[in-house]
Amino acid sequence: MVGPAVHRAWVAWVQEAYQVSRRRACRPTGSSRSVVTYRSRRPDAAPLRRRLRELATVRVSYGHRRLHGLLRREGWRVIHKKTHGLYREEGLQLRRSRGPKRRKQPGARGRPVRALAEQPNVRWAMDFVHDQTA
Fold first, then answer.
1. What is the C-alpha separation between 84 and 63, in angstroms, rounded?
2. Burial annotation 40-66 (CB, 10 A radius, 16+ → b, else e)
3. How far apart are the first and last CA of the chain?
4. Longest dimension (CA), the chain
5. Which residues constitute the domain of residue 10?
6. What is the CA 104 to chain-centroid distance, rounded?
7. What are the strands, taking DSSP E only, across 5-105?
8. Tally of domains within the chain
9. Do 65 and 31 share a structural domain?
């Protein structure tokens, strides 16, 4: 699966190589004309990325939520989803702390193997349920 940028480059090459219109170049390449002519109106996020990276280097222990709050206080008009997406793309995610190591419970270590009784009356056990009801 190829992206729109590859389609645009391919159609541009066909247009140049065969001296045909965009419409005629799109049909044999299998590219949609709307994909080729589309231009994004999304504003450039480079200044926001830079500022997010600067804040993250100064405040190392802050996650994307706290950094989003700082950006909002500075006057950046950005929604939390955008901040989170840029935070992830820049690789600023914090490592999850593992928590303290806990001692294993006695049953988790593995029970000791009991020796089998080789003669009668060597090993005894008591049935506490029967003892209470009797």
1. 9
2. eeeeeeeebeebbbebbeeeeebebee
3. 76
4. 103
5. 4-37
6. 31
7. none
8. 2
9. no
